[in-house]
């Protein structure tokens, strides 16, 4: 090979979010002054199917930090969870799963 | 959950029912906790609110139904697997409403203290506070029977 070759620059990797990542939403439960801790644990178990220990961990996070991300997934499912949590009178919001 | 029958002192509970019914009346037209909506679409939020309202009204009716004429005959309320979830939600809704309507000025440490003395509360707020505490105890009994391992 007589032709002189110019070293090619290595392309900078670009990490574009996959379509799946871009569509993720999170369900956040916020603290409230009324509902007893065992009630919140029971609701998280019933609505989200958590085991006792995981539900208790989220309940404590809500109690101590004021909020806990309890679920991440598709927007449609996040809305369904948010609605179910509101039916149980927990304060719940959904947010795009950014950052 | 097995059926649980709770015997109550009718003369002690009857005055609390006035507060509970007033709170229940408020809840016919308003959600216990203002809902947040995932979309800024008027039709969507209206449907969302109406469905929450319908569920809330059904739960509160179930709660009030515990204190019907049978209750005033024998002082007993009956809780089983058919009504326990609805009663838990109904108690939560009414407690939230009682707090919002009557107990806003009561310090949180008293509200959250299961052993708070009624003498810590201003006289005009004692009945609402007693109703708030009574519904908390009903919830506690249901939760203990749903999950005997529960301890707070």
Observed structural traits:
heterodimer, A: 99 residues, alpha+beta, Ribosomal Protein L30, Chain: A, 3-stranded antiparallel sheet, 4 helices, 43% helix, globular, disordered N terminus, B: 152 residues, mainly alpha, two-stranded antiparallel ribbon, 6 helices, 2 strands
Question: How would you portray this structure in words?
Answer:
The complex is a heterodimer of chains A (99) and B (152). Chain A is of the alpha+beta class. Chain A has four helices and three strands, in the order H-E-H-H-E-H-E. The termini of chain A are far apart. Chain B has one domain. Chain B is mainly α and 152 residues long. The model of chain B has no long low-confidence stretch (mean pLDDT 92). In chain B, strands 1-2 form a two-stranded antiparallel sheet. Chain B contains six helices and two strands. In chain B, helix 2 packs across helix 4. Chains A and B meet through helix 2, helix 4 and strand 3 of A and helix 2, helix 4 and helix 6 of B.
Number of domains of chain B: 1
What share of the residues of chain A does DSSP label as strand, in percent? 15-25%
Principal-axes geometry of chain A comes out as globular
In CATH terms, the superfamily of the domain at 34-96 in chain A is Ribosomal protein L7/L12, C-terminal domain/Adaptor protein ClpS
Major sheet details of chain B: 2 strands, antiparallel
Task: Give the oligomeric state of the chains in this entry, treating copies of one chain as homo and distinct chains as hetero.
Answer: heterodimer
Strand order of the largest sheet of chain B: 1-2
Number of strands of chain B: 2
Q: Structural class, from secondary structure content of chain B?
A: mainly alpha
Q: Which two chains touch over the largest interface?
A: A-B, 26 and 30 residues
**Element-by-element helix/strand order of chain A:** HEHHEHE
List segments of chain B where confidence is low: pLDDT < 50 over at least 5 consecutive residues.
none
N-end to C-end Cα span of chain B: 20 Å
SSE string of chain B, helices as H and strands as E: EHHHEHHH
Task: Tell me the Rg of chain B in angstroms.
Answer: 16 Å
């Amino acid at each position: 090979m007589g032709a002189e070759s110019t070293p090619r620059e290595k392309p900078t990797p670009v990490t574009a979010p996959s379509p799946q990542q871009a569509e993720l939403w999170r369900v956040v439960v916020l603290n409230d002054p009324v509902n007893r801790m065992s009630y919140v644990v029971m609701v998280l178990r019933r609505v989200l199917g958590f085991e006792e220990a995981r539900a208790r961990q989220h309940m404590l996070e809500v109690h101590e930090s004021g909020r806990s991300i309890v679920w991440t997934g598709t927007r449609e499912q996040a809305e369904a969870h948010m609605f179910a949590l509101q039916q149980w009178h927990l304060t719940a919001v959904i947010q795009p799963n950014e950052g | 959950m097995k059926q649980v029958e709770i015997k109550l002192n009718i003369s002690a509970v009857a005055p609390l029912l006035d507060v509970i019914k007033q709170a229940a009346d408020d809840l016919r037209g308003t959600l216990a906790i203002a809902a947040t909506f995932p979309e800024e679409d008027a039709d969507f939020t209206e449907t969302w609110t109406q469905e929450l309202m319908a569920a809330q009204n059904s739960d509160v009716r179930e709660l009030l139904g515990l204190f019907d004429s049978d209750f005033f005959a024998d002082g007993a309320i009956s809780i089983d697997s058919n009504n326990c979830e609805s009663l838990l939600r109904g108690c939560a809704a009414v407690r939230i409403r009682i707090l919002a309507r009557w107990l806003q000025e009561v310090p949180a440490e008293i509200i959250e203290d299961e052993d708070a003395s009624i003498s810590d509360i201003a006289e005009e707020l004692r009945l609402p506070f007693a109703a708030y505490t009574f519904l908390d105890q009903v919830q506690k009994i249901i939760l203990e029977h749903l999950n005997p391992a529960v301890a707070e």
